[in-house]
Specification:
The protein is of the alpha+beta class and 133 residues long. The chain has one helix and nine strands.
């Protein structure tokens, strides 16, 4: 047998195999831990997804876009910087899929606002800067 730096080839191969086996066992344990911690995670079908505005800073006609996997009642609001209600844009039942809600930001003075999507089990807010000048 050939000796390489005081180790035989068989000892080096056994060492590589042991390290590989240990890494595989750690990976399997990690996947099991993730599966265990993921139990009870809410289904994506339970929530709408509200997307950011394409225009920054917001000006003119704004398009609020959201998606829902199932039909549900949705309310979209504009909130002032202190989170007090400014305007209710729409409140109605929507079908599943993507929806665009248009709003004229010229009705708002320049400043910071939040747009909020509410359902029976969700409230999602995003910040926007309105600057129509």
């Amino acid at each position: 047998m050939m000796i390489l730096m005081g180790y035989s080839i068989s000892k080096i191969l056994i060492g590589i195999l042991c390290v590989s086996l240990a890494l595989i066992l750690i990976y399997i344990a990690y996947k099991k831990l993730l599966a265990y911690l993921g139990k009870g995670t809410p289904s994506p079908n339970d929530y709408c997804v509200l997307y950011s505005l394409e225009i920054e800073p917001a000006k003119g006609e704004l398009e609020f876009y959201f998606t829902s996997a199932v039909p549900r009642s949705v309310k979209i609001e504009i909130l002032n910087d202190d989170l007090s209600l400014n305007t209710v844009i729409i409140e109605k039942e929507f079908s599943d899929g993507g929806h665009i809600i248009r709003f004229d930001s010229n009705t708002l003075p320049n400043g910071n606002y939040f747009y909020c999507l509410r359902t029976d089990n969700q409230k999602t807010m995003k910040k926007m800067l309105v600057q129509n000048d």
